[in-house]
Amino acid sequence: MKVRYHYVTKEDVKYCDLNSTVKQAYDFLKATGFRSIPVLKNNGKTFVGFIYKVHLLEHYVEHEGKDNDPIESLLKNQDAYIFEEDSFFKTFLTIRRLPFLAVLNEQNEFSGIITHSNIMDVLEDSFGMQTGGYLLTVGTKEHKGAIKDLVTIVKNVNIEGLLTLDNGDKYLRRIILNLSGDLTDKELKKIIEKLEDKDFRVASVDRIENKN
After folding, report:
1. Are 1 and 26 in contact (CB under 8 A)?
2. Is the Cβ–Cβ distance between 6 and 52 less than 8 Å?
3. What region holds the CBS domain (predicted)?
4. Are strands 100-104 and 110-115 parallel, antiparallel or unpaired?
5. Per-residue pLDDT tens for 99-149?
6. Where in the chain is the domain with CATH 3.30.70.260?
């Protein structure tokens, strides 16, 4: 899965030019309602960092800054970017406490941003929130071939999504299994019985409605 499939394109991003003054940047942030936006130069082609509303306010209050001061010295997170061709899952390691990441193309030009909302969309898809169905939280003692055993048990059912938790735990793993919403109550009950007969513990079952 590539970043290029899951980000906000430049056309839909509010950004600030590096030549902006402190007042221009502050007024723009205030108008957009964002606490931070990307800053670009070279006619919007080159990403140079983030500008935060809080740092603009600190500049005014704590440093007696002027309206016409340049914003360059206030830039933060100059290395907060990722490339279109990077693995999407790299964002989990990079974004952390940042409000977003800039996305660059192969020419190192600014293409857009990836946000926490983009990440949540991908996670929701992993949980089957888009297609709907039955979401089973299954616990198992960690052992080689656990996922293979589970999939074998439900091989005759359409698996909409599968997500593992507690990876690396020596004793317990949880597996989130999303099964087709076309199952009848009787069929679902039979699947649960089969799982538990093979020492899988079904901790919870949730019905997820199709969003489409």
Report:
1. no
2. no
3. 8-68
4. antiparallel
5. 999 999 999 999 999 999 888 887 777 666 667 788 899 998 877 778 888
6. 130-208
For the chain, what is the radius of gyration of the CA atoms?
23
How many C-beta neighbours within 10 Å does residue 152 have? 11
| Dist CA 31 CA 167 (whole Å) | 44
The band of 2, judged by pLDDT with boundaries at 50, 70 and 90, is confident
- Report in angstroms the alpha-carbon separations of 201 from 15, 132, 133, 163, 167: 49, 22, 19, 16, 17
Q: Single out the residue of 168, 176, 182, 45 nearest to residue 123, CA to CA.
A: 176
CATH 3.40.50.360 fits 130-208, yes or no: no
CATH topology of domain 3-121: CBS-domain (3.10.580)
- 205 beta partners: 136
As a whole number of angstroms, the distance between CA 168 and CA 157 comes to 28
Size (the chain), residues: 212
| 9 and 112 Cβ atoms separated by less than 8 Å | yes
Structure tokens at 84: 């279109």
Alpha carbons 96 and 53: distance in angstroms, whole number: 19
Phi, psi of 117, rounded to the nearest 5 degrees: -65, -40
